[in-house]
Amino acid sequence: MNFWDYLGNRHQQLLTDAFQHASAVFQCMVVATAIGVLIGVLTYRSEWAGNLATTATSTILTIPSLAMIGLLIPVVGLGVAPTVTALTLYGLLPIVRNSIVGLRGVDPTLVDAAKGIGMSRVHRLVRIELPLAWPPILTGIRVSTQMLMGIAAIAAYASGPGLGNEIFRGIASLGSKNALNQVLAGTLGIVVLALLFDAAYVLIGRLTIPRGIRV
Fold it and tell me: Does the keyword Isomerase apply (predicted)?
């Protein structure tokens, strides 16, 4: 069976796996973005706190994905839980780092001007600093998403959802007639999803970043 015949026969399962893969990455990115931006907001004013946050999230990223999932299985069990936990943790570094860099890069004169007209610290953060820091934050989100697309495939090791199951089935049946088709289908599916997500982020950037401050 050639590759195109395999896709025709397995298209329904492949679409289901692709949807689960995309859904897992999207949900984890929402959580990682919320946590990462919050960490950035809490630490960007202090040099040591910002360095600590960056170092801590960098350390998480050095843990091999298989090891991370293996360590999580005894704690949270098999399936979705270790996948979501691992992906969220892996997605933090680019968002935390870019949030800190973006917030520190806001022109202090703008912040002082907002303070001078009576805006509270929260209002300055929400209405001045975060909007101006949004371009680097969005870049961090894009980097995290591309990274998690590949890492999510490893979730199949813990019975997680996604296209990694197709890849692992192919690896487990090396030598069979469809082994290569399975690995190729799973891999190309992840590449296509990554490109679609990145295109969506480009569109979001064009809609949310004023022309004058686009990077």
Answer: no
